[in-house]
Amino acid sequence: MADVTAIRIGIIGCADIARKVSRAIQLAPNATLSAVASRTFEKAERFARANGFPPEAKIYGSYEALLDDSEIDAVYLPLPTSLHRTWAVRVAQKKKHLLMEKPVALNVAEFDEIVAACDANGVQIMDGTMWLHHPRTHKMSEFLNNEELFGQLRMVHSCFTFGGDQDFLKNDIRVKPDLDRLGALGDAGWYGIGSILFAAKYELPTTVIAQQGPVFNEAGVLLSCGASLHWDDGKVANFYCSFLSNLTMTVTAIGTTGTLHFADHVIPYEEHEASFTTSVRPRLNDLVTGWESKPSEHTIVTDIPQEAVMVKEFSSLVANIKRNGAKPDQKWPTISRKIQLILDAVTASIEKGFQAVDIVS
Questions:
Q1: Residues with Cβ < 8 Å from 267, sequence gap 6 or more?
Q2: pLDDT in tens, 149-204
Q3: What is this structure's pTM?
Q4: How far is CA 272 from CA 24, 71, 134, 348, in A?
Q5: Which residues of the chain fall below pLDDT 70?
Q6: Family assignment (predicted)?
Q7: Which domains does the chain carry?
Q8: Rounded distance, CA 66 to CA 226, Å?
């Protein structure tokens, strides 16, 4: 029997990432997978069958039909970015809470339209950045916030790349200008920017400068790019993202007394545990032939994978609104908007010939 207290989530769209999130919804203890909608009933039915939906889950042949279902509390939206503004606003207007894929929008103006609709209708919005919900992330935050161990942040380097095959580079929605025109910047760069802001305690930089040498496909979609971020207090950061390079997802944050590093940023090597290393005031030996103090490794175990933790935390927020009359939590859209601002700045810097672009919040 279904848990009547669980948050009932419907999925609009059968994107590949929805396979992972549909599983996460079923693993989350306070959520239930209640429906899926596609542009045809047959496609939605195939998706539900292939991904082990519960027998009571509803199948819809249109997005509108799912939105009209009064028994659905929240919607997971994995549609292409070009469709986000239209459908996210409709989800909010139907008073349904919104978990959506990143990038949230094509630019910050669209982002603000989506959030305004959510605010007007009292619904929670959260983007699908899974790594932020892993318990490892909370432990890393404790280290970064420890002034004795880490000191003051000076520099962050973040890299997320993977080599798309010829089919990906020709046919994936992330290389199509009418579907996801932000390309690698919106898909992989979102994570790099997010990790930098995480290390900087979400303090926005003053300026952003795109690195020279971005690669575009024939349709004008970014396949690789990078940028540097600069703060008035002297700290700096850089990120690189690409669909053309070996799979790499590293983050290094350097403080005045400590360093944090992890090499499986976006997706942990293992589903139920993840590690990071810290180094505090390291020393070299007397002959400078090696290190006397080596980095410490910290491994964090989780009962459910990070994507299920994300669904659990989202569902908890929805339940608090639904049952206790709470206001939507502004933490998550605030973080998302800051990332979106920097995406816009990188794009503008490229268009302006790699000039510095000021961040105006």
A1: 130, 131, 249
A2: 999 999 999 999 999 999 999 999 999 999 999 999 999 999 999 999 999 999 99
A3: 0.96
A4: 13, 32, 10, 40
A5: 1-4
A6: Belongs to the Gfo/Idh/MocA family.
A7: 7-129 (3.40.50.720), 132-306+340-358 (3.30.360.10)
A8: 39
